[in-house]
């Protein structure tokens, strides 16, 4: 089961990367030790290129990052969303068209107006509810650094409804 909840909150004011205006909760009803893949579409809404320097988990409880890559967005293509396993395969859902040309998120250069999917492998090591948010650190061409927490919170738990009420 996957539960998704959202509420409107403009958290991107002043940020160069735009993930949308809604705060999202994405929950997978799975057991501890499971690997999942999540993918979020974003756009560089600034007027200069940026370079991603770090992708870290923040406010993490019982979860760690396996990897973070960028996949070029193809218009009209279904975003990855949430899948079981890391790395993802096309057994249950087709992989994005540009999957084979993915790049490591750290060190990737994003031009103004470009759209990419940030695809992250996560694993739960908690017997209870595991959850996290993701922070991206990047710098613009002038060398100014930015930190941005993307507007998603990810859960791996046996009971999504209860987890989102408690955490």
Quick summary:
Helices cover 4% and strands 53% of the residues.
Overview of the molecule:
- With 167 residues, the protein is mainly β.
- The protein has a single domain, classed as Immunoglobulins (Immunoglobulin-like, Sandwich), CATH 2.60.40.
- The chain is 4% helix and 53% strand.
- The protein contains 1 helix and 13 strands, in the order βββββββββββββα.
- It has one helix at residues 160-166, and strands at 2-8, 17-18, 22-29, 35-44, 50-61, 63-72, 81-84, 103-104, 109-110, 115-124, 130-140, 145-149, 152-157.
- The strands form 2 sheets. Strands 1, 3, 5, 9, 11, 12 and 13 form a 7-stranded mixed β-sheet that branches. Strands 2, 4, 6, 7, 8 and 10 form a 6-stranded antiparallel β-sheet that branches.
- The chain starts with a strand and ends with a helix.
- The model is unreliable at 3-13 (pLDDT under 50).
Task: Give a quick set of tags describing it.
single chain; 167 residues; mainly beta; Immunoglobulin-like; seven-stranded mixed sheet; six-stranded antiparallel sheet; 53% strand; globular
Shape: globular
**Number of helical segments with 4 or more residues:** 1
Number of domains: 1
How much is the radius of gyration in Å? 15 Å
Major sheet summary line: 7 strands, mixed
* Proper CATH architecture: Sandwich
In terms of per-residue confidence, which ranges show pLDDT below 50 for 5 or more consecutive residues? 3-13
By CATH, the superfamily comes out as: Immunoglobulins
Distance between the termini: 18 Å
Instruction: Quote the beta fraction.
Output: over 45%
Order of helices and strands, N to C? EEEEEEEEEEEEEH
Question: Helix/strand-derived class?
Answer: mainly beta
- By CATH reckoning, the class would read Mainly Beta
According to CATH, the fold-level topology is Immunoglobulin-like
């Amino acid at each position: 089961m996957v539960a998704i909840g959202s509420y409107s909150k403009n958290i991107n004011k002043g940020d160069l990367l735009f993930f949308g205006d809604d705060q999202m909760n994405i929950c997978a009803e799975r057991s501890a030790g499971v690997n999942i893949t999540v993918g979020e579409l974003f756009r560089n809404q600034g007027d200069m290129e940026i370079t991603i320097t770090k992708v870290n988990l923040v406010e993490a409880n019982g979860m760690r990052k396996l990897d973070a890559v960028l996949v070029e967005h193809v218009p009209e293509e279904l975003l990855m969303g949430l899948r079981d396993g890391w790395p993802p395969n096309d057994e249950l859902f087709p992989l994005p068209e540009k999957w084979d040309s993915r790049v490591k998120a750290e060190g990737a250069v994003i031009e103004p107006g470009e759209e990419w999917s940030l695809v992250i492998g996560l694993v739960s090591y908690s017997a209870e509810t595991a959850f996290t948010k993701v922070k991206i650190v990047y710098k613009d061409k002038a060398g100014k650094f930015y930190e941005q927490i993307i507007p998603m919170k990810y859960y791996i738990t046996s009971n999504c409804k209860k987890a989102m009420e408690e955490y």
